[in-house]
Structures are given as structure tokens and as C-alpha cells.
Amino acid sequence: MFDLIVLGGGPGGYLAADRAGSAGLSVLLIEKNKLGGVCLNEGCIPSKTFLHSAKVFDHAARGEVFGVFTENPRLDQAAVVARKNKVVRTLVAGVGQTLKSSKVTVKNGTGIILGRENRQIRVQCGEEVFTSRHLIIATGSEAVIPPIDGVKEGLESKSVLTNREILDLQVIPEHLVVIGGGVIGLEMAGYFRTCGSQVTVVEMLDHIAGAADREMADLLQKDYERKGIEFHLNCQVTNIKPGSVEFTDSGETKSVDADYTLLSVGRRPVVRGFGLENLGVLVEGGRIVTDAQGRTNVSGVFAVGDVNGVWMLAHAAYREAEVAVNTILGKKDFMRYQAMPSVIYTNPEMAFVGETEQTCQDKGIKYKKVTLPMNYSGRYLAENDRGQGRIKLLIDSDREYLLGCHVIGSYASEIIMSAGILIETQMRIADIKELIFPHPTVAEIIREAVFQV
Ligand code: FAD
Ligand code: NAI
User: Fold this and answer.
1) What confidence score (pLDDT) does residue 247 get?
2) Is 344 exposed, middle or buried (0-12, 13-18, 19+ CB in 10 A)?
3) Hey, which of 48, 267, 311, 343 would you mutate to test ligand 2's pocket, going by the most ligand atoms within 8 Å of its Cβ?
4) Is the CB of 313 under 6 A from ligand 2?
């Protein structure tokens, strides 16, 4: 019998297994596909590898601005995919090695929960049945396939893609249509536009970038439009045909050319087909219901990562995994989500943490707002020729601490964590002013903005 069985080897599952194994628990991790899950194999890492190639290409193509002259730079998509595969292989091997050193037993196969007998949870993998005291479910999420005419045929003919297929695409489409202007849609739209595709984004809402601050999302959209990406908001896709996509815009049917179409309309937790019902685990709204320790309604059973649907982010999964394992080990710990950083790795990057203007207004929080162009940072200006970046701080009017930070511009992903710490610790604005930031860094923009309060 194991102390812990972990179902799923993505960020939530592998980190939970590693932490538990390192703490001395006997752990079995069951993964049906590849260690690293969506994040390493078809999500975070592959997409960021692509986006880095696009950034290098963009720099090379516009090198003159920086006094560097290159002749006819060319992006070879097959080479980009090959490099991505190499990066993925290295990281996946690293996860395997880490699990080995923390003495985790890894089984490749689909784990099926059989139920509980004599206080032991029973899980089948292939011909074998394993038992354990605790179970962590980390089965992740899968792409939503919208019920649009022509989707099935498009998927079969490989002209309609999800994140999985597009991150293996060996060619640069002439016309790419992206259905859904959320995180995946924006990252991939930016990549393929930089590589030369005509890109059209069709979004059903009146704004892009989901939960991001609306003003900042509009700025990103304008930047993308300047680069030639076409947006159709408030639109419903009605038909995907070979070579084109049809959608309705204010009642009018329109059509755009598409040799490839990306479906990026959201992801849903994987909760079916592996026996959750045999333990009576509560699933509501398509996600496993958990408390602040990651506990489900069934004693000894936890759910971490995308499957609990709280935040579908790898770093959320990591921390949830730690909290669940600490709870199993009898250590006090709980999830706090108020300073969860989000990054959209577009070019320019967009990152945010804490409240947006919309959430402040919905919650009736009184706030002050400071916005500054990123050009206030010398480092930013030194490295950018198109100074369109912006930072926005939201400050609690009564208590003078940071509620939210929103950044568009290079290094946004790297500097957002400093703002996250300031929010998490509720540091007073007066105290933040006394912090020393290294110069010249883009992070100094936070200090600049604070002094405008
Ligand atoms: P997953 O990574 O989905 O892993 C679940 C694993 O469980 C899978 O390997 C699956 O094979 C396995 N499994 C499922 N059922 C069973 C079973 N019955 N038995 C055995 N194994 C099973 N997040 C970020 O924070 N930053 C990013 O930049 C980012 N980029 C992304 C880009 C894309 C294109 C996508 C699609 C997602 C991205 N994400 C990003 C989200 C991130 O990938 C997920 O939040 C993260 O992978 C969730 O981890 P997880 O462990 O919950 O699930
Ligand atoms: P998303 O939820 O970010 O965006 C989906 C978009 O599609 C929304 O704007 C929604 O309004 C729109 N939409 C839904 N149905 C539609 C329809 N029928 N027609 C047109 N538009 C429609 O989902 P996405 O982009 O698929 O990403 C899934 C999740 O993966 C993200 O929410 C995020 O948690 C994670 N992710 C994180 C990344 C990061 O951290 N950088 C990168 C990529 C994904």
C-alpha cells in the first residue's frame, strides 16, 4: 500500500508527487501520456519556445533600429518546431529524474479509481490494482471543442487545430483564423502574425483577454491592430468551411479566408472516464469542488491544478500541490489567490496581478489609479523602439496599499512578481517608496509609478 497515489503527471501532479516523496511518503504517480502534462508538452513551454523564436525573428527583421543590419532574415517553422521538441524533451526528462530522486514510483497508463475498501483507496492501472491512504487528483484540463458546423470535418482534415496541433504545425499559414481572443488565441495570433500570416481573431465578447483590466486589454488590441491583426468582437462563428470561416457580425454574415483555424475558446477540467463516481467525489459546474487545502468532499482525496477549475495556470497548480501535500503531512497551509499573477506572453507582454478596475467597481472598493508610460524606465526605452508600454497601479483609497498592478511592455512577466509580493504582504505605499530597485531595470517603473500616487 502507498501513502499517496497521484493521478496525472502535469505540474500539479508531478510537483505533489515530488514534494510528498521528498518528505518520505511512499508515492505512486500514474500518468497516461507524458510526464509534464499539458504545460510541458503542449502548453506553457512549447508556446513560449515558439514566441521566443518570433521575438528573435522580429528583432532581426527590424535590426536597423538598433544599429544591426542583417540580410533577409528568415524563420524556418520546421526548425522552430524541432527546437521546441528538444526543449520539451529536456524538461520532461528532468521531471522524470526529479521524481526518481524523490523515490516516486511512476506508472505509465490510465489510472481508474475503483473505490474504497477497508479505508484504502483502490486505483487500477492496466492489469494492476494499487491501494493508498490518500489520493491527489491532478488530471488537468482539455480544449473545449465548440459545436460549430464544420469543426468535426476540419479537425479530421487537420485544417482546424487546437493548442496541441498548432504547436506542431510545420508551416506558416497564409491565413489563420483564431476563434476566441483569450490567452491562447492572443499568444498564437501574435506568433503567426510575426511570422507573416494574415491573422483574424473572432471573439464572441466585446473585449479580448478575458479577465484582464479592460483598459489594458484595449491597449493590447490596438497594438496588435497596428501590427495588422484583424479583430471581430461580439461575433459568433457559424460555419468553418474548407478555406474560409463564416461568422455573424451584428446580424450580418461575413466570411474570412482561412487555410488554418485555431480553436481557443477555453479549456474544461478532465473529470470523466476515470471513476470519480466510485468514490462519490463532488463535481459541480464541470470541476471538482475543493476547499482552501485542496480537499474534496471525500476524506483523504484532494484535487489540484486545472481539474478544480479555480485558476487554470501552472503556477496555481504548483502551489495547490504544495498545499495539498502539506495538509496530508499535517502541516498548516492554505491557498491564497489574491496575488495570483497572470501573464499573456504576447509581444508586448501583458501581465497583471490583483484587482482590475472592473473588480474594484464590482466589489465597491474605493481606489486611486496611476498610469505611466513604460518610457519612464530608462532600460525600457533603451531596449524598445516602439514605446507603447504602460503600467497601471490601483491603490486602496482608504488604506494606501496596492490592490492591483497591470503592465504592458517587455519584461512585464518578470516584474509582475514584485507587485505580487507588495499585494500579498499589503505593504503600505509609504514603505514601498523606501524600497531600492536596481538601476537600470524595467522593474523601476513600479517605483516611478508609486511616487506618482
Ligand atoms: P495538466 O498539465 O493538464 O496535466 C494533467 C495530466 O494528467 C496529463 O498529463 C494527463 O495525461 C494526465 N491524466 C489525465 N487523466 C489521467 C488518468 N485518468 N490517469 C493518468 N493520467 C491522467 N499556464 C501558465 O501558468 N503559464 C503559461 O504560459 C501557460 N501557457 C499555456 C499554453 C497553452 C497552449 C495551454 C493549453 C495552457 C497553458 N497554460 C499556462 C496552462 C497550464 O498548461 C495548465 O494550467 C497546467 O498544465 C495545469 O497543470 P495540471 O497538472 O493541473 O494539468
Ligand atoms: P480563455 O478562457 O483564455 O479564452 C477563451 C476566449 O474565447 C474568451 O475570450 C471567450 O469569450 C472566447 N470564446 C468562447 N467561445 C467562443 C466562441 N464560440 N466564439 C468566439 N469566441 C469564443 O481560453 P484559452 O485561450 O483557450 O486558454 C485556456 C486557458 O489556458 C486560459 O484561461 C489559461 O488559464 C490557460 N493559458 C494560460 C496561458 C498563460 O498563462 N500565459 C497561456 C495559454 C493558456
Assistant:
1) 98
2) buried
3) 267
4) yes
Burial of 210 from C-beta contacts in 10 A (0-12 / 13-18 / 19+): middle
Say yes or no: CB of residue 308 within 6 Å of ligand 1.
no
- Looking at residue 437, its pLDDT comes to 96
Once rounded to an integer, what is the mean pLDDT over residues 127-144? 98
Residue 350 is inside which H or E element, if any?
A: strand 350-354
* The pLDDT value given to residue 362: 97
Walk me through the domains of the chain, giving residue ranges and CATH numbers.
Answer: 2-143+268-328 (3.50.50.60), 151-265 (3.50.50.60), 342-450 (3.30.390.30)
Is the per-residue pLDDT at 14 higher than 90?
yes
Cell representation of residue 229: 491583426
Q: What distance in angstroms lies between residue 447's CA and the mean position of ligand 1's atoms?
A: 35
| DSSP-assigned letters across all residues of 201-270 | EE-SSSSSSTTS-HHHHHHHHHHHHHTT-EEE-SEEEEEEETEEEEEEETTEEEEEEESEEEE-S-EEE-
Beta pairing class for 2-7 and 128-137: parallel
pLDDT recorded at residue 387 = 66
User: Does 131 score more than 80 pLDDT?
Assistant: yes
> What is this structure's pTM?
0.97
Residue 109 Cβ contacting ligand 2 at under 6 Å: no
Cβ–ligand 1 distance for 269 under 6 Å, the answer no
pLDDT given for residue 388 in this prediction: 80
Q: Is 297 in the pocket of ligand 1 (CB under 6 A)?
A: no
φ, ψ of residue 163 in degrees (nearest 5): -55, -35
Q: Which of 141, 183, 239, 344 to mutate to test the pocket of ligand 2 (most atoms within 8 A of CB)?
A: 183
Q: Where do we find the cell 470561416?
A: 245
Task: Tell me, in angstroms, the distance from the centre of ligand 1 to residue 10's CA.
Answer: 5
Atom 33 in ligand 1: residue holding the nearest Cα: 43
Active site residue 315: no
Closest CA to 419 of 366, 354, 356, 326: 354
Residue 399 has a pLDDT of 86
Mean pLDDT of 250-276: 97
Q: Could you give phi then psi for residue 404, rounded to 5 degrees?
A: -160, 150
What angle do helix axes 44-61 and 77-101 make, rounded to 10 degrees? 140
pLDDT at res. 155 = 98
Q: Calculate the average pLDDT of the chain.
A: 97
How far is residue 38's CA from residue 45's CA, in Å, rounded to a whole number? 9
